[in-house]
Amino acid sequence: MMENKTIRKLNHDGRISEYTLEEYKRIVKEFHGSLAPGLLIGGFMVDMALKNLPSGEFFDAISETKTCLPDAIQLLTPCTFGNGWLRVMNFSRFAISIYEKKGGNGIRVYVDSSRIENWPEVKNWFFKLKSKKEQNYQLLINQITDAGAGLCCMKKVKIKPDLLNQASHGSRIANCTSCGEAFKIKESPLCPACLGDNPYVE
Fold first, then answer.
1. Shortest CA distance to 158 belongs to which of 107, 104, 110?
2. Do 43 and 71 form a contact (C-beta atoms < 8 A)?
3. Contact partners, residue 1, CB within 8 Å, separation at least 6
4. pLDDT, greater one: 172 or 6
5. Which helix H or strand E contains 16, and what residues bound it?
6. Burial, 134: exposed, middle or buried (Cβ in 10 Å; 0-12, 13-18, 19+)?
7. N or C end of the chain: which has fewer CB within 10 A?
């Protein structure tokens, strides 16, 4: 499939955060296992949000999908699952929000479906119009690289107060009255596994 040369223009400064595009692609491969298209777009999304937030603040992040975007956030910000600054709210929307911890003011970035129209292989991938085997992977990566943040839209958001600083809530540790293992207790004296979320076959 020939690439449409009329749409090949870089919509970014050739960098994602502190990295060149090639450096970012390399760390994506090392961290994620492959240069996933969603993680490449995610880099542009995180970069876009960070460039529109005040410097010197402490931020938390939300990913609205469990696929690819959490890794982009963890690669480019201090927000990780481990420190509790990254939350996944799996709405199956390709969007992120990065917001200041105390007040909840932030930036939401999402892929704009109408902008994808100019990038046919991105459209095929994003809307799953072709199977993975049928997609032209190199063309897809080229189009994402050229489009950059031009695939996305951004808006200011304010996070609901009850979602702020949740990492510090419910921090009392107790032993489960069923299995005896220590866990972070909120209401029930039973840990989530004993309440029915146990993924293991007994």
1. 104
2. no
3. 121, 136, 139
4. 172
5. strand 15-16
6. exposed
7. C
Q: Strand, helix or coil at 184?
A: strand
Q: Which two tokens stand for residue 136?
A: 């032209």
For 89, 90, 140, 174, 175, the CA distances from 178, given in Å and listed in that order, are: 29, 30, 51, 12, 9
Which pLDDT tens digit goes with each residue over 21-54?
A: 999 999 999 999 999 999 999 999 999 999 999 8
Average pLDDT, the chain: 89
**Cβ(57)–Cβ(24) below 8 Å:** no
H or E, element range at 28: helix 21-32
Eight-class DSSP state of 162: G
Average pLDDT over residues 172-192: 90
| 113 contacts 175 by C-beta, under 8 angstroms | no
Structure confidence by residue, pLDDT tens digits, 144-181: 999 999 999 999 999 999 888 665 545 689 999 999 99
Q: Which amino acid is at 71?
A: D
Is residue 167 within 8 Å of residue 180, measured between CB atoms? no
Per DSSP, helices labelled H in 34-192 are 37-51, 69-76, 113-116, 120-126, 137-147
Q: What is the pLDDT of residue 36?
A: 96
Structure tokens at 191: 């840990």
